[in-house]
Amino acid sequence: QVPLVESGGGLVQAGGSLRLSCAASRSIFSINTMGWYRQAPGKQREFVARITSSFITSYADSVKGRFTISKDNAKNTVYLQMNSLKPDDTAVYYCAADRGPFISTNAYWGQGTQVTVSS
C-alpha cells in the first residue's frame, strides 16, 4: 500500500551493472516527474536522475554516460540502469515522484534500496 515500490538494489563489483525499478501507485494522481536520489553514509541526499511526463531526462554530472533513466507509462514505473558502477556510487537509492517539473520537497518517496559497489 506504499506509494512507491522499489526493487533491484544489491551488491556488485566495480564496473558491474544494476537496474533499479520503481512502481508508483495509481493513487498518486497526475505524476509529472519521477526520478532517483541517493544518500551515502555521512552525506546529504543528492540528485541522480529524473524523467518528466514528456520524457525529458536530466542527470547528475557524476553519473552522466553511465546511468540511464527510463519509464513505462503503462506500468507507471521508472527504471534506473546503472552501468560502469564505481565504489562512489555506493548509497541508498530513493525513488521519487512529483506532480511538478522537478523533484521537490512535496514529492513522494520510496523507502530506499541499498546499492553497494565493491572495489
Largest β-sheet summary: 7 strands, mixed
Share of residues in helices:
under 10%
Between the first and last Cα atoms, what is the distance in angstroms?
37 Å
Helix-strand makeup class: mainly beta
> Treating each run of at least 4 consecutive H or I residues as one helix, how many helices?
0
- What is the C-alpha radius of gyration, as a whole number of Å? 13 Å
Overall geometry comes to: globular
Q: How much β-strand is present in the residues?
A: over 45%
Question: Whole-number average pLDDT?
Answer: 95
H/E element string? EEEEEEEEEEE
DSSP summary, beta strand count? 11
Low-confidence stretches: none
Write a structural description.
By secondary structure, this protein is an all-beta fold. 0% of the residues lie in helices and 50% in strands. The protein is built from no helices and eleven strands. The strands form two sheets. Strands 2, 4, 5, 6, 9, 10 and 11 form a seven-stranded mixed beta sheet that branches. The chain is globular, with a radius of gyration of 13 Å. It starts with a strand and ends with a strand.
Care to give the gist of this entry?
This protein is mostly beta strands and 119 residues long. Helices cover 0% and strands 50% of the residues.
Write the layout of secondary structure elements.
Blueprint: E1 4-7, E2 10-13, E3 18-24, E4 33-39, E5 46-52, E6 57-59, E7 67-72, E8 77-82, E9 91-98, E10 108-109, E11 113-118
Parallel strand pairs: 2-11
Antiparallel strand pairs: 1-3, 3-8, 4-5, 4-9, 5-6, 7-8, 9-10, 9-11
